[in-house]
Design goal:
mainly alpha, Non-ribosomal Peptide Synthetase Peptidyl Carrier Protein, Chain A
Length: about 150
């Protein structure tokens, strides 16, 4: 049991877990941004095209709900949620496109940094070649003979 707990402690203490936690928090916030973009920008544009206030209006009711005289629902409505599906697809495409742009920008920045590093390495003057072991031994032998 102690080994298990020490392994768990080592796992939690690793930087990867913290990176993952930060990623989840950022993803949650990013999801809110994309939901707001879809709900407040893209959906009104679709509303103009489909003459409907939101994509839910594109859902088809297969069977209407049956309501009793006292207002209680006897049978739930059966709805084919094509508009809801369309909204989810738009949400996915927006998220995928933004992630694509972020990865593309990161790759471009990485390539630019690599090119700069390579240019700096090429601009450095070449170091003179270091003497071989045989040359060093020859110099030491010559110095000893001179004494």
């Amino acid at each position: 049991m102690k080994k298990f707990l020490s392994e768990f402690k080592a796992f939690i203490a690793r930087g990867n877990v913290l990176d993952m936690a930060i990623g989840v928090i950022i993803a949650t916030s990013f999801g809110k941004i994309t939901t707001a973009l879809v709900s407040n920008v893209l959906t009104p544009l679709l509303a103009i095209i489909f003459n409907s206030p939101n994509t839910d209006a594109l859902n088809f009711t297969l069977r209407a709900a049956e309501v009793a005289a006292d207002g209680t629902v006897v049978k739930e409505a059966i709805v084919l949620g094509l508009g809801t599906l369309l909204g989810a697809i738009i949400d996915f495409v927006v998220i995928a496109f933004v992630i694509f742009l972020i990865v593309k920008a990161q790759n471009a920045a990485h390539a630019k940094a690599e090119a700069k590093k390579k240019a700096e390495e090429e601009a450095k003057p070449a170091e003179p070649p270091k003497p071989t072991t045989e040359e060093l031994l020859t110099e030491i032998l010559a110095a000893l003979k001179a004494k």
